[in-house]
Design a protein that fits this description.
103 residues, 4-stranded mixed sheet, 2 helices, 30% strand
Length: 103
Amino acid sequence: SGTSVLGAEAKGKIVSMATLHLLPNMTYGARPYGLVENVATLPTFAGQGFGRAVMEAVAKTAWQAGAYKIMLLTGRDNNAKGFYEALGYDAGEKHGMILRRPA
């Protein structure tokens, strides 16, 4: 409940996808917030607008659900920061931190 997987299809297969989690919240009038994970586009379909279409669908889904914000983390080494900034995401507002399960 609260999780959606959105994708773009071409040539009969999913070529780009993202997972959107809508999470309950006690602030901002109890409006949920969105957390985006696992954004991926097959390399042969990169740069063709599929990722942008998926991320626009993510935003539309979150806003229709009443979310007050959408957050995501992206790796430092995958050159995706500029892609997200072009979509309106701001890297300066929060710091992302990760705790991984010990081996």
